Amino acid sequence: MEGQEDWTGHASFMNALSKERFVVLGGPLEGTPDTLLVIRARTVDDILARLSTDPWTSRDLLRVSQIAPWTLRLGSIP
User: Fold this and answer.
1) pLDDT value at 27 more than 80
2) How far is CA 44 from the centre of its chain?
3) Is the Cα dihedral 30, 69, 20, 49 positive or negative?
4) Residue 37 banded pLDDT, cuts 50, 70, 90
5) CA separation for the pair 5, 7 (Å, rounded)
6) Do residues 26 and 14 make contact, with C-beta atoms less than 8 angstroms apart?
7) Nearest to 38 by CA among 10, 12, 47, 74
8) What is the pTM (predicted TM-score) of this model?
9) Contact, 21 vs 40, CB < 8 A?
10) Secondary structure in 3-state letters for the chain
11) Which is nearest to 44 in space by CA: 66, 14, 21, 19?
12) Alpha-carbon gap, residue 11 to 2, rounded angstroms
């Protein structure tokens, strides 16, 4: 991932979302080109709007393939 175009811009963008606690957890799924993001948001539109401003979105390096609500039943996320 670090070798892709505008890695620094994308990493800065994601770090800012994490600092804001919009992105709670994130990372690549081993053996795939996919990444999993756990996001705190009220609506799907909120997620799509925020991720649309990532520098990788315009380069087609970041694509949302699925959004699924999740109920945490074990453990906790601060």
Assistant:
1) yes
2) 13
3) positive
4) very high
5) 6
6) yes
7) 47
8) 0.86
9) yes
10) CCCCCCHHHHHHHHHHHHHCCCEEEEEECCCCCCEEEEECCCCHHHHHHHHCCCHHHHCCCCCCCCCCCCCCCCCCCC
11) 66
12) 9
